Each structure stands twice: as structure tokens, then as C-alpha cells.
């Protein structure tokens, strides 16, 4: 049990913490689209609301429902955030941007 927790659950918990902090910063950023802000608010309201898929009055299943669904929703929202909403991502992109003669090459390609 302890091996399972450290191998599978602990990294997911740490990633969840980072995603929650990312959503907090993105919620207040003006570059974040409205639908992602609304989804973040929905995830919070789902967590604190007594109306769930499985009500919290059912001792284990109600909590298990929140433990599974809320991280999935938060991970989904965090994966759809624009890079401009996260200041750390923006700073890392600016630092790694090549400096040159000003010519830009489009890096997108399609396979025909």
C-alpha cells in the first residue's frame, strides 16, 4: 500500500497542487478565456456544493466522488489554459526565444 501511494498517488497529488495554483493565477489573469474561468468556478462550486453525482451524506462514496471528479476537472481546465495566462510559462518562453536577425520561421507543418 505504501509503495502504491508513493509511486502513483503522490506525484498526482503534487501535480494537482500545481494545477490548482495555476488555475488560481489564471482565474485573475485577463488573458484567460471566460469559459475557462467559468469552468474553474464550476469546479469549486461542485466541490463545496452538497449536490453531487453521489451526495456527500453517503459516507465513503460521496467523498470518493469528489476525490475523483474534481482533479479530473481541474486537470482538464489546466490543460486548456493559454500559455499567456501563466506568468512562469510566459517568462520561460521569453527567455528561450532565439535572438537573431528578426526573421521568423513558422514551425508548423502538415503531412500530406
Secondary-structure element string? HHHH
Structure summary, number of beta strands: 0
- Kindly name the structural category: mainly alpha
> Could you list the spans in which at least 5 consecutive residues all have pLDDT below 50?
none
* Approximate shape: globular
Largest sheet: none
**Radius of gyration, taken over Cα atoms and rounded to an integer in Å:** 19 Å
Our estimate of the beta-strand percent is under 5%
How many helical stretches?
4
Rounded average pLDDT: 76
Q: Regarding quaternary structure, how should these chains be classified?
A: single chain
Distance between the termini: 49 Å
Helical content class: 55-70%
Write the layout of secondary structure elements.
Blueprint: H1 2-28, H2 34-48, H3 61-79, H4 87-96
Helix pairs in contact: 1-3, 2-3
Could you characterize what this model shows?
There is one protein chain. It is built from four helices and no strands. It is mainly α and 112 residues long. It starts with a helix and ends in a 16-residue tail after the last helix.
